[in-house]
Amino acid sequence: MRAQVAIIGAGPAGLLLGELLALAGIETVIVEQKSRAYVESRVRAGVLEQGTVGLFDKLGISARLHAQGLVHNGFQIAVRGQLHRIDLHALTGKSVVVYGQTEVTRDLIAARLAAGRPILFEAADVAIRNLDGPDIGNTRPHLTFMRDGQSQHLDCDFIAGCDGFHGVSRPTIPAALLPTCERVYPFAWLGILAEVAPCSPELIYARHRNGFALASMRSNTRSRYYIQCGPDEKLDDWPDERLWDELRRRLGPEAAAGMTTGPAIEKSIAPLRSFVAEPMQYGRLFLAGDAAHIVPPTGAKGLNLAASDAYYLSEAIARHYRDGSRDALAQYSDTALRRVWKAERFSWWMTGLLHKLYDEQSFEARMQTAELDYLFGSRAARTVLAENYVGLPY
To answer: Residue 76: helix, strand or coil by DSSP?
Structure first.
């Protein structure tokens, strides 16, 4: 097989990149390890920045997003039983849209297949071959993999590694040429998805002496809740009843009064980390999304960073094919990382602000309280929070 760009991974980064490149007339093949059913059922993030929504509009595949997505002009922070609203629209003129990553993925897959652009699901033993050192060079790379019991070979000009934190793309780059920065947090998020109405029309982030909590949603009839827990805790330790009780406690009386409970249709424990690998390219291999960076979910930046990476990389590749320039390709990593590091900073700050990290009588915990008090009393501080939450410009 032959394509101008081989994309590894059918997550949001790879799918968005494929559609953006198609808009520029560039042929791509997406190679995905998992089945279509598995990819479309993964429960992930659900808050889209305006820039991400704008990409869907540009691609002409945003009809279902606008019909079913929930526009949020603000969110709330619960502290000591009190709710404090961050008015995103009043502070920035912008909003966010709650629309689950599961739906994002389904829309992108449907659009790609309807246009006859290939996604090779259930590809095993994917390997990247013939990379010619750290510079772009002239040597063409290729992929090899197994599918339907047969060995496959995909020639290409460039490879986009969009296969997530545990994929094959990043480990292909020599470790000595790929420094990484990482912060592993001493807690995890226990999440529950239930077919019940949300307790609030907007997201509620809660700081409580027992730990962080978040009330979110995927639709008007499906709720997503999280609580901070220990990294070694087990799902068996948290039957539904105990989890609902703890959510009521941490979110406070006003949110608890509006809470409807029900059996979990999905429950999981996810560790939190901040991670960045740089540069995000090696020769003709370019990393995007979770293959290059991870953010804690507190700031809702993971999916949105995948989208901005796809935008920057598509622009660089399109420029190369349009005028032969390699400058944008050579600058892709620096361009993308400027936005990545700002999102890392915001996610790290918001995580540290709202989670239980210290004894309640410690100096550090008092600083968290002082920071929140300042935030609620200062329009300037709330504007900084709102600007980052709705998404910095591309």
So the answer is: strand
Contact 119, 112 (CB under 8 A): yes
CA distance 38 to 127: 21
**What are the start-end ranges of the H helices in the chain?**
12-23, 36-41, 50-59, 63-68, 88-92, 101-114, 169-172, 240-251, 253-257, 302-323, 327-354, 363-377, 379-390
pLDDT in tens, 12-43: 999 999 999 999 999 999 999 999 999 998 87
Mean pLDDT across the stretch 109-128?
97
Which H or E run contains 31?
A: strand 28-31
What's the rounded Cα separation, in Å, for the pair 275 and 297? 12
Residue 371 sits at the vertex; the CA angle it makes with 370 and 377, to the nearest 5 degrees, is 90
Identify the structural domains of the chain with CATH numbers, from first to last. Answer: 5-72+99-181+273-350 (3.50.50.60), 185-272+356-390 (3.30.9.10)
Closest of 373, 207, 166 to residue 290, by C-alpha: 166
Number of residues that make up the chain: 394
Neighbours of 141 (CB within 10 A): 21
Give the chain's end-to-end CA distance (angstroms, integer).
34
Look at the pTM and tell me if it is higher than 0.90.
yes
Active site residues: 72, 205, 297, 301, 389
Q: What is the pLDDT of residues 218-251, one digit of tens each?
A: 889 999 999 999 999 999 999 999 999 999 999 9
What local confidence, expressed as pLDDT, does residue 136 receive?
A: 87
- Tell how many helices (H) and how many strands (E) occur in the chain: 13, 20
Residue 108 contacts residue 32 (beta carbons within 8 Å) = no
Phi, psi values for residue 363, rounded to 5°: -60, -45
Answer yes or no: are the C-beta atoms of 11 and 290 closer than 8 Å.
yes
Give residue-wise pLDDT tens across range 360-379: 899 999 999 999 999 999 99
